[in-house]
């Protein structure tokens, strides 16, 4: 409560004399928390509402937006449009002007406040990556104010609806197309030296989470020397492929929980761990998502669409789709191995059991890939041995 009081006092200092309410917006696997600040009577921004002639709103008329741009109202039950001043950081998408051209002040503007305790979190990477991605033309939270000493950031609000909540069989192709369009913008903006290198040391540290947290801690298995050698053999093969791939900016968690439903481009969150690394990594995050499953035939179609767009845009994807797909698969294996270790660590070290239910899907992705490639056969044999051990152990879990 003391921390939230500090946050409220800081926000009051940014908007003196304005009233607002704070409510939890979300939390993630780190120490970061997010609060939504709702300002009364349009406080917090200078957005204008453009009122359709048949709108029953009682909002008073106001001057038109300087650039004439408009967008749907986010907090109203009607079809009111927002007229956005050129300097407004609102994330609302453009829409057609109001039929009668009338406008009115926004009532109920929102902002999101990030609470990142500085003893646990460093906001600098978030700020740096956000600038890079925003400059690339993607839809990330705009930063209005910052206090790094306290660990507070004031951000634009990308709404409440994640891709995970919104995705259906009917809209998936459209939403994933928008997501890959945004990803291509990020990849095209890539420059060496701006972000940490996704090098062998980092890739290896991620792989090592698997034997430490998933095998030893979660399954309770002590690997024999022979099993350790098999695992190392596969790790070397995976790393060789990953490191040979062309490098671009990598979000590192580009999936349905970190993409927000904002039209026409997805809002992008949780990018502070971005690196410069393999071009297929974010595609593996997106299409081999730990939180939602799609048929492999459908994923193949989406991958081909991305590959064709990427080639047309001049990105360094493999000329042969078969080679590109193998890169994607082996990158996915690296990620699945890491994610299983992270989910196990979140449970056993941090007491967060919500990720346990997602482990079977990640393991299914891993096994399917291992079944397709001879280089991964030793890992498939190990997974079979682990499964057998779990079946023979009272209360065992695989």
Overall mean confidence score, pLDDT: 86
Strand order of the largest sheet: 1-2-7-9-8
- Poorly predicted residue ranges: 51-66, 69-97, 104-108
Query: Do you know the CATH architecture of the largest domain?
Result: Alpha-Beta Complex
Q: Please work out how many helical segments DSSP would assign.
A: 11
- Could you tell me the radius of gyration in angstroms? 24 Å
Report the structural category. Answer: alpha+beta
Give the helix level as a range of percent: 40-55%
Main sheet characteristics? 5 strands, antiparallel
Gap between N and C termini: 39 Å
CATH homology group of the largest domain: Aminoglycoside phosphotransferase (APH), C-terminal lobe
> What percentage of the residues does DSSP assign to strands (E)?
5-15%
Judging from the principal axes of the Cα atoms, what is the shape? globular
How many strands appear in the DSSP assignment?
13
At the third CATH level, what is the topology name of the largest domain? Answer: Aminoglycoside 3'-phosphotransferase, Chain: A, domain 2
User: What is the multimeric organization of the chains shown?
Assistant: single chain
The SSE string, one letter per element, is: HEEEEEEEHEEHHHHEEEEHHHHH
Number of domains: 2
CATH class membership of the largest domain: Alpha Beta
